[in-house]
Amino acid sequence: MSEPLLAARRLSKTFTVSGGWTAPRRLLQAVTEVSLEVAAGETLGLVGESGCGKSTLGRLVLALIPPTQGEVFFTGEELWGLSREKRRQLRQKMQIVFQDPYSSLNPRLTVRQILEEPYIIHKLGSKNQRREWCEKLLDDVGLTGEALHRYPHEFSGGQRQRLGIARALALNPQLVVADEPVSALDVSVQAQILNLFNDLKRKLGLTYLFISHDLSVISHISDRIAVMYLGRLVELAPRQMYSQRRLHPYTEALLEAAPVPDPRRRPPTPRLKGDPPSSLRIPPGCPFHPRCPEAHSICRELLPEFRQVGTDHWLSCHRR
Ligand SMILES: Nc1ncnc2c1ncn2[C@@H]1O[C@H](COP(=O)(O)OP(=O)(O)OP(=O)(O)O)[C@@H](O)[C@H]1O
Prior knowledge:
single chain, alpha/beta, Rossmann fold, 8-stranded mixed β-sheet, 4-stranded antiparallel β-sheet, 12 strands, 23% strand, binds adenosine-5'-triphosphate, EC 3.6.3.24, nucleotide-binding, ATP hydrolysis activity, ABC_transporter-like_ATP-bd, ABC_transp_ATP-bind
């Protein structure tokens, strides 16, 4: 890979959480030693169950929160080694699309005001230019200029997500972190929005870190897929690899739990039982061992290394 657009090196994030009136404050390990790279023009999918640290990792790579340890490089520059002003400038090239466009779009502003805001904040363009840019953004996401004078509540869920995407594109970003951008939408609308992401990537040369708990969504959109469990990456491989065998047992369980497109085929009994343990009490050894059907004694004692097992294929498992 040539120099990646985005690189995380051993990124960790610990939160201090209140224990209530009586208990002491405790440390919650949300992300632990995550390293990954995203090449320009690539879509890296990040998948894992709720609470495994996906959003925290997304916020870390956007430098919205500082890491407890580790580094984030964007276009080769380490973001936390830069001055605040330089970091702010680089951050314009990285934008986020949220899960719930309704709560991220100010309901009191018209679409024009919402889309114009980034240009006004950065003192870009005349009034007429800004209007043209807003119309172009709407066109890019499949809406018409007629939308400019309307308010977010006048749009359907899918259209609102198109507005959320349009706003993220206003300052011509290179990287977009999409955090569960289709989870709140009906399945039929999900496909349209995923296709829009793909079209925009081709047209505008974008790079995505695409976050979802749903492996079928991630498989649809990603070039490579990173699987996260309790704050750590457990597998990283090209999408095609996920149709083959010998994956991490957690990945295999996620695949088995993914929806089956053919209704005549009964989904197999999912082998992923129970919820993941709390990030406040991460099990020793391999964090997945209490739920792993293949766990051995070593899995209970020793953290498996995240190691390369094939071309572009990394995983952490004693049994693979
Ligand atoms: N600001 C915070 N303060 C304390 N704990 C936090 C904070 N943000 C996240 N967490 C905790 O960190 C862990 C990871 O959360 P995160 O939101 O990153 O997971 P996620 O995989 O994105 O899940 P979800 O899809 O449910 O948001 C969770 O246990 C969460 O409660």
